[in-house]
Structure formats: structure tokens, C-alpha cells
Predict the structure.
Amino acid sequence: MFLKKFAKDVPITISYHQNGFKQTCTGRLHKLDLVKQTLLLKDEKQQIYFIHLSGIQEID
């Protein structure tokens, strides 16, 4: 399951759909909210990406 990759403190790459577009971002997990089914990913420039778990296509 993909949650095992979040447990490690290494950068991950996530491909996901948002607003009808496929996007890809790389960073470290900032926060995981299982109630709202979202995650926040922070890249090396400290930019935070808000991603719905249902939109995730691939995690590397």
C-alpha cells in the first residue's frame, strides 16, 4: 500500500489529477489527514501542495 512510502522520510514523487489536469510534484510528506482524505506535500522550495487521496494516480 502507498501509505508505507509516507512513513519514510525521503522525497517522493506523486502523479495526480486536479481540476481535470494531470500534475506531478516531488517533495516530503508535510501532513496526512485521513478524515478529510488529503495530504500536504512540501517541496524543497517550501511550497506546499494540497492533494486529494482519490486523485492520486502513482507514487514513486
